[in-house]
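Ticket #4471: complex job returned nothing on first submit. Input attached below:
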Amino acid sequence: MTKLDARSPDGPLHKKWDNRLEEMKLVAPNNKKKHEIIVVGTGLAGGSAAATLGELGYSVKSFCIQDSPRRAHSIAAQGGINATKNYPNDGDSIWRLFYDTIKGGDFRSRESNTYRLAQVSNNIIDQAVAQGVPFAREYGGELANRSFGGAQVSRTFYARGQTGQQLLLGAYQALLRQVDRGKVEIFARREMLDLVKIDGVARGIITRNLVTGEIERHAADAVVLCTGGYGRTYFLSTNAFNSNATAAWRCHKRGAYFANPCYVQIHPTCIPQSGDYQSKLTLMSESLRNDGRVWVPKDKKDIGKPPQDIPESDRDYYLERKYPAFGNLVPRDVASRNAKYVCDEGRGVGATGRAVYLDFRDAIKEQGRDVIEDKYGNLFHMYHKITDEDPYEVPMRIYPAVHYTMGGLWVDYELMSNIPGLFVAGEANFSDHGANRLGASALMQGLADGYFIVPFTVGNFIANYDIKKVSTDHKAFDAAETEVRDQIDKMLSVGKEGSRTVIEIYRDLGKVMYDKVGMSRTEEGLKEAREEIVALREEFWNGVKIPGSSDNYNKMLELAGRVADFLELAELMAIDALEREESCGGHFREEYQSDEGEALRVDDEFSYVAAWEYDEDGDYEVHKEELEFENVELSTRSYK
Amino acid sequence: MADDMMTIHLKVWRQAGPDKQGRFENYTVEKVNPHMSFLEMLDVVNETLIHDGEEPIEFDSDCREGICGTCGFVINGQAHGEERGTTVCQLHMRSFSDGETIVVEPWRARAFPVIKDLVVDRDSFDRIIAAGGYVSVGTGPKPDANSVKIGKDVSDKAFDAAACIGCGACVAACPNASAALFTGAKVSQLAMLPQGKPERGRRARRMVHQMQEEGFGNCSNIGECEAACPKEISIQNIAKMKREYLRAIFTDS
Amino acid sequence: MIPLKRALSSPTGRKFVMSISGIALVLFVIVHLLGNLTLYVPDGGETFNRYAAGFEAMGPFLYVIELGLLAVIVIHMTWGIATALKNRKARPEKYAESVDSKGGPSNLSLASKNMIVTGVALGIFLVVHIWHFRIRKVYVAETTEIDGNEHADLYALVHAAFSDPLWVAFYVGAMLFFGFHLRHGFWSALQSLGAMKPEWSKGIYALGFFVALVLTVGFMGIPLYIYFVG
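Support reply: We reran it on our side without changes. The output follows.
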């Protein structure tokens, strides 16, 4: 085990980023175009990074697995994006957003990074508006703000329920502008399958063309990974069908440390699963909990009854009962965990017994249907459309679903991993949210990293390292390509004879993860999970069934490669969760809770980032980055 | 629950590759849960096909909540199926009747060549945006976001146009395979906003010409695109694009 | 600025050409119908012949107008056919199940789908019509006297034609094509020019129907009136 150094700048918190920017070396303008930079992923982080790097003059290659950069999953973010503009004049400041983020992350994030995130948040809004992003506005023409996720100030900017879409399209358009200028080349429908390291430095990637199956080599002076989170390890999640951890995981296998993989955010208000065929879960904004009341029947025998026939006295409004002060507005993790508990008790409702009611009956009675419709009309419509039930008449059924992963590849202050030349931005890195992410902060981080941080730190890296050109004929490329080809061939040869489909094995993995590495974890469960994951991995490599060939479009082959990686990452998640003998944020260990059932942090032992080094045999080695809090005092949450 | 299960007959376009000859194949799917989305139903069909040693029906999809624009094909002669304001991932089997035969084919347009089965290549859309569907500002310090006020009405209208998900249903549904709604939505959104005004002429000119070069057809104001659009974007945006283009013929900006 | 040549071949520009020429033709047709209404006057054709004589009085200026009109027609047809051919090329492989309207805001109808069919039919009709009444009028033998001057009796020509049920059927049929073409064309011309406020859209579409109906009924009535009433 080594101690990791984040290379945070010296100086007072609010001067750190400025200080670093001033120290940075610059690349001469006429040299920039000689430097090739690979950006993998075209979401908020990748799209904005590639656009900005192109704008600066670098020769950028941008890769995405989708058919167009515009499809990246950032597009599905609904709620909004935080910034400390303080337009509503309600006392917001950079410090306050920073503090809320650190505290919301349960004091498991790096002070310097989090502060910088709050610092650049305002630039993002200015940038997006300048690009023509149609944020919500007041009649007077100024930007509208709302309070989000229990924040005490209104700092969230939004564009109806499609904030992610609008911000992503802004970045996408900026990116395509650079394509038009000849600065960026887009490689769509390409999947990164390996990182190529030469002399310990990231120098390129191996990709597969998802249409022709060709394996391609790309060399560069720096690689920026913006490939999102690993929520799909759970199979069912609110993430897109193709979201995956493969690019990050293959980098991990090449030596990049994977930090805090056990930090997963599980969102309480999702539309529950309706059957075994389910392919994904749909999130509904948690603003619903402002007016909806969460309950289940007190008695198991009532679970089959129509909810409107269950009298008040037979309903258990368990959040209001257990948390009288916050009631239905407890944080995401508390709400999620308690839904799991009541379902585990057999009091869950709906076809699968894995759902609780979110009831608007009283709100409609008190405020009138019109008011509720005005606030939540689009969400009610969405719910109605998906479930065929009218939430104005019968309570919604909700259940938690994996939504975001705070863990990711370890990066230093400059968002560079422990592999020189490999940068990681957005959800793919671990850096800013600690053990739990605040609502409306994911978009902020993606764009902060992509527009305002990576473009400078990549330049600093290029200016400081003496980077010699490499050819894709280098033997490191040969070796990486051979490994990639071997894996595909192996999958297809097993796949010919196998008996269980990729999806079947994948579903099993998801079930293990939800049951044992989900909202509530125990030592015993995690150990079992680890064994079960290893067994599934063996089953995969001995008996998976994969159709078709590798020389054309083959969705199942793509998925098989991703599932193979999830099957490894899942084990590391269990290991990390097992090692972290405390409860914090999205990581709840049942052994570590207060008498009131609250998460119990163990600050003197676990106030560190666990960055794992890959080991083929599963003996992952942990490297620790101690978290030093010089500016905030650690406190404990209480929602009683 | 079990009583509600449906039987569906599918007639699906199968095409092994871009230059291969395609054909329709028939499948019968039993025990279809009415709460499944159309894509989940295809997932189930595919699982069976894989077990039987056959190649699954390939289709594109990603977010499966109707916002990424990846999915889409023509169901019974209608882009994204019969329901309005929806994508195929949000189209549920309960909107079909038990025993129904459903014809499924890919978007068909010269500018959207078939890659495999129901998967098509929509790069042409990216090239249309690259031709001018942006505001030419670099990253960097910008005036405060509230320094330019935009009235709520204009902002809302711009948003309505900006809601486009780029799925291609407009092209698929258009009898002429025109991309006017897609192009018009972006031209119109940016022309309405003060940030987009300085380069409105160049934008209209370049985007319209790019649309032509990609081999899309010409708009004849039928409006089927608006009916097929999952985001119900109005063809008034096409009229706006025409005004922008007309303006660009005579002015420099 | 966009060079005019480039503009006119662009998807948007070519529709401007179609729209402007189309609107010009609609205006012509309205004037044409107003003139033809004189055929309904039961005076043995005197009003009509008087009206027709007015054209002769224009001398060579009539030829200028006629050539101008012909040019508009030729432009409208050329651009229309070229556009339709391009549209056809935009979808080389047709749907097995033809596009079925989703309803709602869609104007997909027999009229809107078949503009090229009705357009070509009208083109053929025009050739016949011009031969039938414009070319043949030069060789009309019968004369009639208006204000002491000798004039060709065009009414007799019209009357003779519309006494033949085949000609009546031909003209009535052609006017159906005309109606369908105008039903979509009128609204489409304004939409292509972007010449409407969104709020007017529905109204203009309805107006298109009204204009098509009035013009069609007006023209269709003439052969029927002459055939049945005399």
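The radius of gyration of chain C is 20 Å. Closing as resolved unless it happens again.
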